[in-house]
Structure formats: C-alpha cells, structure tokens
C-alpha cells in the first residue's frame, strides 16, 4: 500500500532538477493502492520504466528486483524509486544490490518500506521488516543519506545519492527482522 506519507515523502524529496530529462526506474511499480509515478512524470523525465514481478496497472515490464542489472545493465538509470516493495522481495539483498548497481553515479535513490509493528500484508508475499538502523547500514555506501521514520505507519523512508566512486557495502551478514 502506498500511504499518503510515502507519496508526500516522494513529493518533498524530489525536484525538477532531480527528474527533468533523466531516466527513471520504478521497482515494484504495480499500482495496488497508489503510485508515485504521476508525481514523478509531472517533472518531465526523459523515460520512465515501471517494473514488477507481474503485469498490472503502471507496470511496463516484468522483472524481478534481483534481475535489474541483467535486464537493463549497470548504471542505466539516473533515478531509482521503490515504494513499499522491499519487504515483499524474498531476496532483499539482491534487490538492494541491483537497485544500487542500476543507478548511475550521482543518481538519486528513493526507497520506502515497512518496519516492525506493521501488520503482515501478503501481496504476493511479505517477508521482512526494516528499522532505521537497518537502513543506515544497508545504504552506508551511499551519499547524502537521509533515513526518516514514516509518521503514519511503522516504516522507513530513504533518500540517497550514489557516489561517483561506488564501493558496494557487503550485506551478506546483515540480518533484518523476518515476518
């Protein structure tokens, strides 16, 4: 579900400078209860691709988040957005790694996901809960890192930029709460 707070976060954390003329990838684009796509498209990106694991509203291409680099290549997008998807990715590490690697240097990353205390909501599966501290560690390899807690429901809101020289954090030993 795309809470109003998630859409407000996206709206207040992007500008025309971030989006105009840029290539945007939305990961987990299936519009179940709202989508940031309309907000972002108003800012005139050069392209917008919405991917998900199944067809539906706002989905342009079927692609698992762990296969983004295979599908699109390394450093292919200027902006990567993923709202309310990460807790549904069986392989959250692969999903995060692919989102980071698909992002061009200097590119903007916006991710929102649910935290402990949020009820299980299979769509199709619901596996993980992420804390603010988890996000700080998972995205420690990014610059301009901002991690906020969702004011409407247990969740986190992440905004970051990929550094010019990117050395990906090793997440193999990082554990998050399983649902």
Keywords, separated by commas or semicolons:
single chain, 179 residues, alpha/beta, Rossmann fold, seven-stranded mixed beta sheet, two-stranded antiparallel ribbon
Q: Number of helix segments?
A: 6
How far the N terminus sits from the C terminus, by CA atoms, comes to 17 Å
Count the strands? Answer: 9
Shape: globular
Percent of residues in helices comes to 10-25%
The CATH class turns out to be Alpha Beta
Order of helices and strands: HHEHEEHEHEEHEEE
CA radius of gyration is 15 Å
Quick overview of this protein structure:
This protein has 179 residues and is an alpha/beta fold. The chain is built from six helices and nine strands; from the N terminus they run H-H-E-H-E-E-H-E-H-E-E-H-E-E-E. It is globular.
Written overview of the protein:
This protein is α/β, with parallel strands linked by helices and 179 residues long. The protein has a single domain, classed as Rossmann fold (3-Layer(aba) Sandwich). 23% of the residues lie in helices and 28% in strands. The protein has 6 helices and 9 strands. The strands form 2 sheets. A 7-stranded mixed β-sheet has the order 3-2-1-4-5-8-7, sandwiched between helices. Helix 3 (37-41) links the parallel strand 1 (23-27) and strand 2. It is globular. It starts with a helix and ends with a strand.
Which helices and strands, and how do they pair?
Blueprint lengths: L3 H10 L2 H4 L3 E5 L9 H5 L5 E6 L8 E2 L5 H5 L4 E7 L8 H11 E12 L13 E2 L2 H7 L4 E7 L5 E7 L15 E2 L1
Parallel strand pairs: 1-2, 1-4, 2-3, 4-5
Antiparallel strand pairs: 5-8, 6-9, 7-8
């Amino acid at each position: 579900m795309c809470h109003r707070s998630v859409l407000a976060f996206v709206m207040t954390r992007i500008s025309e400078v971030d989006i105009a003329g840029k290539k945007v990838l939305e990961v987990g684009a299936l519009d179940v209860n709202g989508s940031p796509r309309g907000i972002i498209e108003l800012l005139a990106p050069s392209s917008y691709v919405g991917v998900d694991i199944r067809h539906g509203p706002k989905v342009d291409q079927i692609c698992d988040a762990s296969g983004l680099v295979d599908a699109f290549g390394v450093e292919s997008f200027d902006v990567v957005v993923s709202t309310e998807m990460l807790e549904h990715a069986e392989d959250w590490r692969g999903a995060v790694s692919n989102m980071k690697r698909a992002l061009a240097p200097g590119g903007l990353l916006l991710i929102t996901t649910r935290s402990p205390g949020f009820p299980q909501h299979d769509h199709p599966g619901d596996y993980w809960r992420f804390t603010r501290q988890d996000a700080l560690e998972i995205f420690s390899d990014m610059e301009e890192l901002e991690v906020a807690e969702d004011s409407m429901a247990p969740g986190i809101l992440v905004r970051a930029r990929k550094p010019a020289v990117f050395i990906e954090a090793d997440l193999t030993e990082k554990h998050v709460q399983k649902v």
